[in-house]
Amino acid sequence: MAKAAVAQETLSYCTSCKIDLAHLIVAMKGDQIAKVECKTCKKIHAYKAPKGVTEVAPKKKRASKKASDEAQSASTIEAEWEKLMNAHKEAPFKPYGLKSKFALGDKIKHPNFGEGIVGKLIYPNKLEVIFRTDIKVLIHGGAPN
Question: Where exactly are the structural domains of the chain?
Fold first, then answer.
């Protein structure tokens, strides 16, 4: 198989047409195709392997960096969670419910995600909750009375 290069034609999944189509390579990142232009709709987008192709070369270098970034992110989130929980250790946990109303700093007991604390209120009815290993945006009943 010939090595891919800019201006060559390749088969790619078109994110606009939602089908595998002929594309022109417009950008490379090392020896990997980065961006392509659909020959049908003329949209330029990131290269996506054709849906009919099941064998894709793994990106080992990137995967290990991503894994280490996720581990570092999780430890940072956990450190923030512990800091906030200690700062509000006297506050009781409120059970989470869609219609419940929460304020900044409220401790939440979620049935799936566990114990969390409200880190940000997003107008009008969403809130950002910091759980031990992740941050989730949840819906709630609005500002507390």
Answer: 9-59, 77-139
